[in-house]
Design goal:
This protein has one domain: START domain (Alpha-D-Glucose-1,6-Bisphosphate, Chain A, domain 4, 2-Layer Sandwich). A hairpin with a 3-residue loop joins strand 3 and strand 4. The N and C termini lie close together (9 Å). 24% of the residues lie in helices and 42% in strands.
């Protein structure tokens, strides 16, 4: 999962169809604890920092923009047939509350598409 996506900005976050203008501070594409990157999702320009990075099991980043503070974590557990991915995101702020109120299913639907895209990319014969 890390080789095919999450540990690399272009192949991980860049694979998320709802992520635009993704760029790591200082260039490059490999992520690490403390890496800073900017991106746009749901029309919001976010500034993110990789807070946890423990390949191949864990990655998490914080994200900030006016009206939103978020934390997105991924836990990857190897299995006999590949891996199990648990992802969780928390959001705080007026913009986050408004988005949940106006579009209650939007975030979950986009994250599901992201997971499905990563699954396709990491399937045998695809990596």
């Amino acid at each position: 999962m890390f080789r095919a996506g999450l540990g690399n900005l272009d192949r991980g976050i860049g694979l998320y169809e709802n992520a635009h203008d993704v760029a790591i501070e200082g260039g490059g594409s490999d992520l690490f604890v403390g890496a800073r990157f900017t991106w746009k999702t749901f029309g919001v320009r976010l500034e993110s920092v990789v807070e946890e990075f423990g390949p191949p099991e864990r990655i998490a980043w914080s994200a900030e923009a006016p009206g939103v503070l978020a934390y997105h974590a991924w836990l990857i557990t190897p299995t006999d047939t590949g891996c199990h991915v648990l992802t969780e995101e928390t959001q705080h702020g007026i913009l986050a509350r408004a988005g949940k109120l106006l579009f209650p299913s939007r975030m979950g639907a986009w994250h599901q598409r992201w997971l499905e895209g990563l699954a396709e990319r990491t399937a045998p014969n695809q990596a």
